[in-house]
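testing teh design pipeline on a random one, pls ignore if ur not involved
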């Protein structure tokens, strides 16, 4: 399988002031999927414009025809499975069945306290995620769902007619720990990682590759425990958070080298950030577009 190349477009621009044109251009450049972050605000963008993921993807569905659309990633931090399922079914319908749900356990950023709650501990995030994903799976595949859990409940929640994609839209489960990897193995059509965050500041690209190899092996072990072929789970790397940082986007050759090393680990999709000036995702737009247009052919 050839390595797919996708992009993530952060929702920080008004739709009619550059937001729309980025999604249109992403499709014209041939990206496999256009993702966006599903946060209420994020890091250095907190005090500036930031728009909602589902409305943004709905608008993107209206100005694109072929490119898949998705979140990287949605989390339980401010989402409930019942309301999220209804939004996803609607988005899948509007897009003609082009939606992938990237989903993770969430973190301790602004989303974790925006609704007035105390930040959840790592264990509670994992506990909630373990309940959130299976319930969302049911809500997207069954016409009516009732459920009473430790964290979430549903009472005769109706989701007719269901997703355009059958039996439901695909899940791309972000995980590095054992419980999350088991969820990816059981419910995911894809697995997402950003690498080992402990290596970002002082690690080396070689150490990062070794860490990613270890994560992929643990995913394979989780699949084996369930009797699932690990090759049936796509592997997605959201770039920009490994020790390489932005260097792979400095030239076409640098990116092809980076991509090749990670394709050897079994990754089936790489996601690169749409350039944002004066940010961690700054990049030369001409080089970025050249990578989008020319790199996939070199990675087949």
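output:
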């Amino acid at each position: 399988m050839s390595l797919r190349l996708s992009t993530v477009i952060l929702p920080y621009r008004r739709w009619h002031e550059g937001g729309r044109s980025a999604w249109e251009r992403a499709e014209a450049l041939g990206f496999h999927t256009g993702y966006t972050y599903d946060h209420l605000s994020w890091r250095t963008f907190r005090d500036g414009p930031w728009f909602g993921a589902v409305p943004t993807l709905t608008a993107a569905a209206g100005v694109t025809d072929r490119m898949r659309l998705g979140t990287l990633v949605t989390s339980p931090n401010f989402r409930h499975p019942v309301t999220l399922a209804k939004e996803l079914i609607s988005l899948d319908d509007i897009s003609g069945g082009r939606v992938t749900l990237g989903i993770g356990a969430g973190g301790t950023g602004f989303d974790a306290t925006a609704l007035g709650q105390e930040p959840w501990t790592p264990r509670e995030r994992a506990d909630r995620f373990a309940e959130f994903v299976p319930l969302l799976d049911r809500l997207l595949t069954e016409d009516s769902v009732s459920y009473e859990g430790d964290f979430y409940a549903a009472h005769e929640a109706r989701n007719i007619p269901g997703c355009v994609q059958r039996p439901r839209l695909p899940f791309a489960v972000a995980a590095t720990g054992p419980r999350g990897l088991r969820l990816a193995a059981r419910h995911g059509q894809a697995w997402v990682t950003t690498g080992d965050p402990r290596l970002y500041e002082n690690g080396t690209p070689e150490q990062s590759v070794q860490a990613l190899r270890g994560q992929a092996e643990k995913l394979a072990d989780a699949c084996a425990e369930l009797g699932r072929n690990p090759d049936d789970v796509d592997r997605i790397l959201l770039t920009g958070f490994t020790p390489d940082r932005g260097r792979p986007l400095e030239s076409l050759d640098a990116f092809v080298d980076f991509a090749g090393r990670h394709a050897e680990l079994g990754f089936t999709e790489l996601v690169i950030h749409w350039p944002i000036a004066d940010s961690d995702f700054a990049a030369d737009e001409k080089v970025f577009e050249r990578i989008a247009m020319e790199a996939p052919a070199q990675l087949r």
